[in-house]
């Protein structure tokens, strides 16, 4: 699937006497803002704006290149327990891992994403992309709220749920989500859970 500024290419290579015509499915709008400028002007990305500034990712998101930002909305950050969010925001390394987990190494418009695709993030981890009816899914969840916001250096998709990589979790949080969750109860009963958090 080929796209032009996120418009789908319907028919290619119509040769004329003075050139060639490609038919696309929408009008291409002028794009003037970088990904960073979109973050700075969009009200629903206020928390993300603060997180990007704290992690020194501003320069990357306004640099030349082609990236996909899965931009967590304010709503996405609000779904995380306050204690967990404060811990990540206060830990520069965990915060950078969290944000890099939301950035893909290439520009991917929604039209060009094929179900079952595995995409690599800037952090080096992978995200599974699929479909649920008409909706795109990330790791099995239909969490993309707004798609294909074009930037001069890529594309932004708004997501309403935070994608927290393992590297941004504590040992306790990792264990709670795994097959050793019952063992965690023993650590808690023994008064040792503080070592895992």
Automatic annotation (TrEMBL):
CC annotations in GO: extracellular matrix; extracellular space
Annotated gene: Tgfbi
Superkingdom per UniProt: Eukaryota
Gene Ontology molecular-function annotations: cell adhesion molecule binding
GO biological process assignments: cell adhesion; extracellular matrix organization
UniProt-listed PANTHER family: PERIOSTIN-RELATED (PTHR10900), TRANSFORMING GROWTH FACTOR-BETA-INDUCED PROTEIN IG-H3 (PTHR10900:SF82)
Cited SUPFAM superfamilies: FAS1 domain
Domain FAS1 residue range list: 1-28, 32-163
Protein name stated in the entry: BGH3 protein
